[in-house]
Amino acid sequence: MDKITVLSRYLPPDAAPLIARWIDYFNCEFKVSRSRNSKYGDYRPPYQGKGHRISVNYNLNPYAFLVTTVHEFAHLHTWNEHKFKAKPHGTEWKSNFKRMMRPFFDKEIFPQDVKRAIVGYLENPAASSCTDLTLFRTLRNYDVKKTAEAAMITVEKVKANSLFKMKNGRVFRKEGLIRKRYRCVEVKTGLVYLFNPVAEVFEVE
Ligand SMILES: [Zn+2]
């Protein structure tokens, strides 16, 4: 399979061709890595016969994957220009990151709030780590919500007197068992409904 197709699984598809070009141009070994809690991505400069190496965690959402990838390529580019003379997230890196981010801004690949968070990150002189919290909090909003399935629960598992929600958004309070069904009161209308114990609903905090 060609590089662009593979990259499109992880990146916004419009961003994949340019990242593929960078991998070739910089002669970089680019790896999609297993998830690491301590970091999203990693750059290693050439060492003992090995070339540039970048790895990015596989489980980032496409925008976070792209931001991390550009972040690491900015390290690579800064290494090529300055070697040990530039600090990891110093002014040289920052100006490269800014410049290398521009084509993706031009292509309008990011949603507005992500773009604002990136710009804010670039303009904040104190921002220096690989994992800026504001930026990654915004990026995290684009994680695929696994909660829809995971938070599903059967009515019998809902705690007594707790609220639950149906798929259509209607909210109920669970009360007692009446024969084989649960008596539940719709919060909005006060009307009583009987629920099958294994009906699937969503928990409400
Ligand atoms: Zn970094």
From TrEMBL:
<feature type="domain" description="SprT-like">
    <location>
        <begin position="50"/>
        <end position="103"/>
    </location>
</feature>
<dbReference type="Pfam" id="PF10263">
    <property type="entry name" value="SprT-like"/>
</dbReference>
<dbReference type="InterPro" id="IPR006640">
    <property type="entry name" value="SprT-like_domain"/>
</dbReference>
<protein>
    <submittedName>
        <fullName>SprT domain-containing protein</fullName>
    </submittedName>
</protein>
<dbReference type="GO" id="GO:0006950">
    <property type="term" value="P:response to stress"/>
</dbReference>
